[in-house]
Structures are given as C-alpha cells and as structure tokens.
Specification:
Blueprint lengths: L5 H9 L19 H15 L6 E5 L14 E4 L5 H11 L4 E7 H7 L1 H10 L4 E6 L34 H8 L3 E6 L3 H13 L4 E6 L12 H4 L1 E2 L4 E2 L2 H10 L4 E7 L15 H7 L5
Parallel strand pairs: 1-2, 1-3, 3-4, 4-6, 5-6, 7-9, 8-9
Antiparallel strand pairs: 5-9
Length: 284
C-alpha cells in the first residue's frame, strides 16, 4: 500500500465508516454477501481519507447495483451494463472526483462485457468492484457468464454446459493496471484492497466473491475454500494471465500490478457549450 502523508493521516483519523453511511436500510436478502462488500467499501473510504462529497459511486442494474443508495457519497444508478460508460465520462469530465463503479457479474460481464474490456484498455484512473455470485439474483436465478457449466437449476436443468467467463484473465489481458480478488466474508481484507486499488494509478478492478443465499446457498462453503495468495505479479501480463487461468477461483489478493500510464483527462480540450450549440444551429 502506498505511503500516507501527514495530511492524509490526519484525514484518516478524522473519518470513520459511519461517515459514508446514508441511513437507508439495505433490502438485500438476509445473509447476502453484498452486505460485507458495503461494509468493506465504507471502511476503505474512511481509510482513504477523502470526504463523501469527493467520491462518486456509479452502478448499473442488479442486486449489487443498489449499493450507491446505501452510502453518503454522490451516486448514479444507471442502466443495465452501462455503469462503466457513465463512470468513464464522469472521471474524464471531473478528474477531481474519486470515481468508483460497482455492480454484479450479470450486469458487468454479460451486457456490460464490452464496456468492461474497453475500460481496461482505456486505463482511465478509477476503480471497478464486481460482486460475483455466479447467478442473476434479481431476475430469479438464471445462470450468469461466470456460472459453472454443470450448475443444475430449474431454469437451466443439467447446467448450461458453457465455459465460465474469467474476469481476472480478461482484465489483465485487456490492459487493467490493478487486478485483485476479495471475499465478501472478509470485509477488512476487501477494504485494504480497495484502498490499494484507488491509490494505484490507472484502471483498477476487484472481483469480490459474494455468495447469494437465495439462489446459490451452496456458496456459503466459499468461506472454507478461499485462501490468501501473496504471489502478486508486476508488469508481466503473460505470467499474470497464466496464473489466473490456472487458479481455481478462490485465491484472494492482488493478482497483477502494471505501470501503464493512466488516462486522466481528454486528449483534446472540451469545447465550450456555446461552440457546440452553434454547430447544430439550423439556418433560417
């Protein structure tokens, strides 16, 4: 984790997780892993030290995408799969804000999959947290892009037989600068990764294993399967991709750190609104 200056240390002491709570009561199912993600994110923001009005949370559609309403930061609840597009535009227009995108595996890897790839490629300086429960929880339990091929359900009897999407490998291969995995049942560890991801320049991606109590109750065995792996790879994307492909999906920690230059502002100056309006003026 990056060194903290004296000013930052003062801010860290001045802020607490409760400063980032909106007071709205989450309506997730009791036992949902997303509660742990919310707790970890609130702790991380307090540790990071920037006040709520300097943080913007952007989400798409799904159970996990309700998260911005439960924090005291700026928030935008977008449409299905488009959270990263909104977040990219916001960060380029307001680079002074801490922009964090949150969502789920269905929202982020299915209809939002193309945005995910290109957000990694563009390397804009922001953080993306995906709560992965390997199922569409809000729309009644359909298989998602990360669902195991043999998962049997009423909607997909016998399983879908398709190879799961590997988000970590895709993120590394597409150009993300920081890639990590956490577990919702360990919010303190998640908080550490969030702070590290925020402070690492460029596009940071954290996959969070977040069990679904309603449609995937067997996932509560994950707490016995997850393990911490300190074998972080820096600047060798080929080695990092190989490591993610060999992983069984339960190694926690930072997978990869890169040193690509982050995109922090548009390559061309933004024209004044009056100039843009003149381009569309119809002569009389």
């Amino acid at each position: 984790m990056n060194d903290v200056t004296a000013t930052e240390a003062h801010c860290v002491r001045a802020l607490a997780a409760k400063d980032f709570m909106s007071g709205a009561h989450p309506i997730w199912c009791p036992g949902c892993g997303d509660y742990g993600v919310l707790a970890g994110l609130e702790r991380a923001l307090a540790l990071h030290g920037r006040p709520p009005h300097e943080v913007a949370l952007i989400s798409g559609i799904g159970c996990s995408s309700r998260l911005p309403a439960y924090t005291n930061c700026y928030g935008f609840h977008g449409v299905h799969g488009r959270a990263l597009a909104f977040a990219t535009g916001l960060k380029l227009a307001r680079p002074d804000l801490e922009v964090i995108t949150v969502g789920g595996d269905g929202d982020g890897y299915s209809i939002g999959g193309n945005h995910f790839i290109h957000a990694c490629r563009r390397n804009v300086d922001m953080l993306y947290i995906v709560m992965d429960n390997r199922v569409y929880g809000m729309t009644k339990g359909q298989p998602s892009p990360t669902t195991e091929p043999d998962w049997d359900s009423e909607i997909a009897p016998g399983g879908i037989g398709l190879r799961p999407f590997n988000p970590l490998a895709v993120a590394v291969a597409s150009g993300a600068n920081f890639v990590a995995r956490a577990f919702a049942g360990q919010p303190d560890h998640l908080a550490q990764l969030v702070v590290e991801g925020i402070r690492w320049p460029g596009f940071a991606f954290i996959e969070v294993l977040s069990p679904c109590i309603t449609f995937r109750p067997e996932q509560f065995d994950w707490k016995a399967k997850v393990r911490h792996d300190e074998a972080m790879i820096q600047n060798d994307r080929a080695a990092a991709i190989a490591a993610t492909l060999a992983d069984d999906g339960f190694n926690l920690g930072v997978v990869f750190k890169g040193e690509r230059a982050a995109v922090t502002k548009p390559s061309q100056p933004i024209a004044p609104l009056s100039d843009i309006e003149r381009q569309f003026t119809v002569g009389t």
